């Protein structure tokens, strides 16, 4: 009885976690880990909690992992699958980083002040906060039409805030996809940040009690969205 109770407890904790294993392009999900770097221990679905660790970039060990690279059009809608679903409350943010010349998306580690934000979505306010992606099995966003053509890493980040009232309580669910943008523009992305480096554990969007008193505003962590 004791053993089965603890297995059940473990199963319910694990099932509350989630992972972003595939890109969604032209409305269709690609294979899991085909274009998304498979991080060490992905089957745990567990979060990263240390904003100062290298794992905050692309998840555990994934700055040195490799996947295939998917060609997508600038201005098109791209997405990630969320498995089994985004069960926790919190914001969704998406960043891109242009692969430097001489490197490829398959080999580059994503280091430096290279990441710009292309999507950031906080809560809706009311009697209590509601989060648009909570419960979602897919998330989507637009590749800015103005991004220059070329290879990029695209980093999805859902931050679970259900136990974030003290520093380090926020849980980061992260994956990095590899894309090759075609038909791009002449934009010059701004608000470039590094991971780690972009966040502090005490940032107001990361250390917050989302339940009581119910917040009346919310400040996304990181730079402003660059939309081109
Ligand atoms: C990216 O797209 C360009 C233009 O279609 C193509 O020439 C290049 O081979 C592609 N690179 C990758 C890695 O898919």
- Number of E strands: 9
| Mean pLDDT, all residues | 94
Radius of gyration: 17 Å
Q: Would you identify the regions where 5 or more consecutive residues have pLDDT less than 50?
A: 1-14
GO molecular function, one term: metal ion binding
Family: Belongs to the polysaccharide monooxygenase AA9 family.
Protein name: lytic cellulose monooxygenase (C4-dehydrogenating)
Pfam family, one: AA9
Structural commentary:
GO terms for molecular function: metal ion binding; monooxygenase activity. There is one protein chain. The protein has 228 residues and is mainly β. The chain has two helices and nine strands. The protein has helices at 2-15, 55-58; strands spanning 23-25, 28-29, 70-73, 77-81, 92-98, 115-121, 138-142, 150-160, 171-182. The strands form two sheets. A five-stranded mixed sheet has the order 3-9-8-5-6. Strands 2-1-4-7 form a four-stranded antiparallel sheet, with no helix packed on it. The longest helix has 14 residues, at 2-15. It is globular, with a radius of gyration of 17 Å. 39% of the residues are buried. The structure holds 2-acetamido-2-deoxy-beta-D-glucopyranose. 2-acetamido-2-deoxy-beta-D-glucopyranose binds next to β9.
């Amino acid at each position: 009885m004791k053993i089965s109770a603890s297995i059940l407890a473990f199963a319910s904790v694990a099932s509350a976690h989630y992972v972003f294993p595939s890109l969604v392009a032209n409305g269709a999900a690609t294979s899991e880990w085909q274009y998304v770097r498979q991080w060490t221990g992905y089957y745990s679905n567990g979060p990263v909690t240390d904003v100062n660790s290298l794992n905050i970039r692309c998840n555990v060990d994934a700055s040195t992992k490799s996947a295939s690279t998917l060609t997508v059009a600038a201005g098109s809608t791209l997405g990630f699958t969320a498995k089994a679903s985004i069960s926790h409350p919190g914001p969704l943010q998406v960043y891109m980083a242009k692969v430097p010349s001489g490197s490829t998306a398959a080999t580059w580690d994503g280091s430096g002040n290279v990441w710009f934000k292309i999507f950031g979505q906080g809560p809706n306010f009311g009697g209590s906060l509601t989060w648009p992606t909570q419960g979602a099995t897919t998330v989507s966003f637009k590749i800015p039409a103005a991004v220059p053509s070329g290879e990029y890493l695209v980093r999805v980040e859902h931050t679970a805030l259900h136990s974030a009232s003290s520093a380090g309580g926020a849980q980061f669910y992260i994956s990095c996809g590899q894309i090759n943008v075609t038909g791009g523009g002449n934009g010059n992305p701004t608000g470039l940040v590094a991971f780690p480096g972009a966040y502090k554990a005490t940032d107001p969007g990361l250390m917050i009690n989302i339940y009581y008193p119910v917040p009346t505003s919310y400040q996304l962590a990181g730079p402003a969205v660059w939309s081109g």
